[in-house]
Write a structure and sequence with these properties.
The complex is a heterodimer of chains A (476) and B (250).
Chain A lengths: L2 H7 L14 E3 L6 H10 L4 H16 L22 E3 L11 H10 L5 H4 L3 E7 L2 E5 L2 H6 L3 E4 H7 L1 H7 L10 H9 L4 E5 L8 E7 L10 E6 L4 E9 L6 E4 L2 E6 L4 E9 L10 E12 L4 E8 L4 E4 L2 E4 L5 E10 L4 E10 L5 E11 L3 E10 L7 E11 L4 E10 L5 E10 L2 H9 L4 H17 L4 H15 L5
Parallel strand pairs in A: 3-7, 6-8, 7-9, 8-11, 9-12, 10-13, 11-13, 12-14, 13-15, 13-16, 14-17, 15-18, 16-18, 17-19, 18-20, 19-21, 20-22, 21-23
Antiparallel strand pairs in A: 1-2, 3-4, 5-6
Helix pairs in contact in A: 2-3, 3-9, 7-8, 10-11
Chain B lengths: L1 E12 L2 E12 L3 E5 L6 H9 L4 E10 L2 E2 L5 H6 L2 E4 L6 E5 H15 L7 H14 L10 E2 L5 H15 L3 E5 L7 H14 L5 E5 L3 H7 L3 E6 L2 E6 L3 H8 L9
Parallel strand pairs in B: 3-10, 3-11, 6-9, 9-10
Antiparallel strand pairs in B: 1-2, 1-4, 4-5, 7-8, 11-12
The chains are: A alpha/beta (476), B alpha/beta (250).
Bound molecules: adenosine-5'-triphosphate and magnesium ion (MG).
The site of magnesium ion has 4 residues of chain B, from helix 1.
Chain lengths: 476, 250
């Protein structure tokens, strides 16, 4: 197949690149202690939180931006970013939410409005830095479940926040985590009480709207003993020429016998085919599993100019389970360096890694994974499978699996494949009357199947549609 | 009346001349068999007809129902009713056999202005057809050809042929690698499609399948050309004497 056709077939325009026209309340670019105090004050935070932020800021100033990723980008000027932006009026109820925001969400297909709420998804919508509306909170409250913005949680549940925030991702864990700790503006807090099954999918939709604003959300999910929760995160950003920084931190705590399922559909603006514009996405996601607990990360990454992201599991408790299922697509001039870390500390801990990288056009796709087996992790087992699919011949895929084992009996299995969408496969489908574009998407879906089946039903449908959109184009 | 007319086709793969002015006319409703030595260009001929990307046609024309198809995309040729059973069907991981075939069948139905089949209607028909071909029920939901044995792949080609109901059917060594039962099932599948309207081009090295499906014409392809055409009696002669004697004189 001609290269040009292939390029067309994989360059679906960024359909979510519209801008919400609402009044914003934004601080001027730049970062110093004054800005941090401003953020903290805007959020009505107690003094202890401001102190923690300032401590993180001081540490961050002594740290260096990491450059070990297989990524190439213009340096980030941290003083040219605005660290706080909010819609002017802080809404109290759905009626008060600016209709333009609601309209924007409905364009994104977010179930914020009443009728869609009936489908049983609780949504915490974040526009730029403020949580606009948390739906369903009342029903969840009845079960003792807390689902609110992280700012509310800092005010209303200080003991939980003080106990768990920074407990999985310390504020100095890495450069971007430290920055986030200093300037995080919003995000979600979830607490599931012991032996409680969260009755609905919890969902947050992040969206970067204002020009030159960074988004630094912070998410903390605590699943108490024997509880279960499935949490979904979606992201998008409007089309812009400049690069925007997104540095999020997610911490998960699964206590004894608890299970957390965390799914992400990441669709930030990817920039154009020359690498102009797009989101720089530097994210730290980590969970800790106590005895018999399970954490499962599923991610579908189709957006961002730069993705640097390694959702990880610390398998501390015996018999705990970590899973990582990932589809990462890089097309245009996108670069992704993503993977996971599975840290086996407890006995009989098991982890599964299924990573599917798809590269097209000038996309660069790197899998980077670490499986670490501690000295006391008798009976630990890992299975890793990393597959790369190349579309066209300008893109690249790289795989860096690292293994550190202190237990000679640890069972680690790693399989990796790299394949091209073969002309042979395409031709077979076309000979049966299936058009070229449909044939490409059929092969790509087939390639991602093991990951998509891990997503909750409606998100799987969304992910498929998104993948199609990302790789779509009129085939000549 | 001829349904497919191949006129003085010259075709290359890479730099290599493979088809060297080949002429062949397929009569509508008839079964044509092509036999010939390894490397003579039989698979290349079938690839040329379906518009395979490897093949470059440098001269000549191919007419389907009197109209040239050389400018048509592979999927258009398929939708116009040309089906190729591949000598080596490719595996496509993660794509279920049923999903694939329903997409193909519905593409054809849309092309013909018919309504698409819903999943339930389609599955009923596919299961029935697969059962008649002696295929295990699980083959329907498995990934397309993935891990199928050689014989299973060939049966799956016939399953597709039966569901797609094409007008011109090219079978490239459908019989190679089949056990006796599979050969019978596949042959019966082919015979069930014979209705006096559909046209077959059967590429084979063995007389066995021809005993089952009773071709009307035998063509001998040697060194990129059809060197001889005869009736079914030619098969026995070829079995006895090989290809050496045929076409040498003329
Ligand atoms: N992709 C290719 N690249 C180079 N040469 C090729 C290619 N495909 C076919 N050929 C050559 O073209 C010639 C004809 O091949 P073809 O497959 O048509 O033969 P065939 O008659 O089908 O043989 P067989 O009976 O063994 O299947 C052979 O010499 C073969 O090596
Ligand atoms: Mg052949």
């Amino acid at each position: 197949m001609a290269q040009e056709e292939l390029n067309q077939a994989v360059s679906g325009e960024y359909a979510l690149g519209f801008e919400i026209d609402i009044e914003q309340d934004t601080v001027p670019p730049g970062l110093d202690e004054g800005v941090i105090a401003f953020i903290s004050q805007k959020k009505d935070e107690p003094q202890w939180m401001l102190d923690l932020r300032l401590k993180a800021f001081a540490k961050w100033q002594q740290m260096e931006e990491p450059h070990w990723g297989h990524l190439d980008y213009t340096p980030i000027d941290y003083q040219s970013i605005s660290y706080f932006s909010a819609p002017k009026q802080a809404p109290e109820s759905l009626e008060e939410v600016d209709p333009k925001i609601l309209e924007a969400y409905s364009k994104l297909g977010i179930p914020l409005e009443e009728q869609k709420q009936l489908q049983g998804i609780a949504v915490d919508a974040v526009v730029d830095s403020v949580s606009v509306k948390t739906t369903f909170s009342k029903e969840l409250e009845a079960k003792g479940i807390i689902f609110c913005s992280i700012s509310e949680a800092i005010r209303d549940y200080p003991e939980l926040i003080q106990k768990y925030m920074f407990s999985v991702v310390p504020m100095t864990d890495n450069y971007f985590a430290a920055l986030n700790s200093a300037v995080f503006t919003d995000g979600t807090f979830v607490y599931i009480p012991p032996n409680t099954r969260c009755p609905m999918e919890l969902s947050t939709y992040f969206r970067i709207n204002a020009l030159n604003t960074g988004q630094f959300e912070r998410t903390l999910i605590v699943a108490d003993k024997g509880s279960y929760v499935s949490y979904n995160e979606g992201c998008s950003a409007p089309t812009r020429d400049d690069n925007q920084l997104h540095a999020a931190v997610v911490e998960l705590i699964a206590m004894d016998d608890a299970e957390i399922k965390y799914s992400t559909i990441q669709n930030w603006y990817p920039g154009d085919e020359n690498g102009k514009g797009g989101i720089y996405n530097f994210v730290t996601k980590r969970g800790i599993c106590e005895t018999n607990a399970k954490i499962s990360w599923t991610q579908v990454e189709t957006g961002s100019a730069i993705t640097w992201k390694y959702p990880s599991c610390i398998l501390k408790g015996d018999n705990s389970v970590g899973e990582f299922y990932s589809v990462a697509v890089t097309t245009l001039a996108q670069q992704a360096d993503t993977g996971t870390k599975m840290i086996h500390l407890g006995k009989n801990t098991t982890s599964t890694i299924i990573s599917k990288g798809i590269s097209a056009m000038k996309g660069q796709n790197t899998y980077r994974g670490l499986v670490k087996i501690g000295a006391h992790a008798e009976g630990a087992r890992n299975y890793s499978e990393c597959d790369s699919l190349l579309i066209g011949d300008q893109c690249e895929a790289h795989t860096f699996p690292y293994l550190e084992s202190k237990d000679p009996h640890g069972q680690v299995e790693h399989e990796a494949t790299t394949s091209k969408i073969s002309d042979e496969q395409l031709f077979y489908l076309r000979q049966r009357g299936i058009g070229e574009e449909d044939a490409v998407s059929m092969i790509v879906h087939g390639f991602c199947k093991d990951v998509f089946t891990q997503l909750p039903m409606e998100y799987a449908v969304e992910a498929k549609a998104l993948l199609e959109l990302t790789l779509e184009g009129s085939v000549g | 009346m001829s349904i497919l007319e191949i006129k003085n086709i010259k075709a290359t793969i890479g730099e290599k001349n493979i088809l060297k002015g080949l002429n062949l006319s397929l009569e509508k409703g008839k079964v044509h068999a092509i036999m010939g030595p390894n490397g003579a260009g039989k698979s290349t001929l079938s690839k040329t007809i379906v518009g395979h990307y490897d093949v470059e046609v440098t001269e000549g024309d191919i007419l389907l129902r009197g109209k040239s198809i050389l400018g048509m995309e592979p999927e258009e040729r398929a939708l116009e009713g040309i089906f190729l059973s591949f000598q080596h069907p490719v595996e496509i991981p993660g794509v279920s056999n049923a999903y694939f075939l329903r997409t193909a069948v519905n593409a054809k139905r849309v092309h013909e202005g018919k309504e698409e089949l819903n999943a339930a209607e389609f599955l009923r028909e596919m299961k029935q057809t697969a059962q008649e071909l002696g295929m295990k029920p699980e083959m329907i939901s498995r990934s397309l050809n993935e891990g199928f044995s050689g014989g299973e792949k060939k049966r799956n080609e016939i399953l597709q042929m039966q569901m797609l109901q094409p007008d011109v059917i090219l079978l490239d060594e459908i019989d190679s690698g089949l056990d006796i039962d599979a050969l019978r099932a596949v042959s019966e599948g082919i015979n069930a499609m014979k209705d006096g309207e559909r046209t077959f081009l059967v590429i084979t090295h063995y007389s066995r399948i021809l005993d089952y499906i009773e071709p009307d014409y035998i063509h001998v392809l040697k060194d990129g050309q059809i060197v001889h055409t005869g009736g079914p009696e030619l098969v026995a002669q070829l079995e006895d004497e090989g290809y050496e004697s045929i076409g040498a004189a003329g």
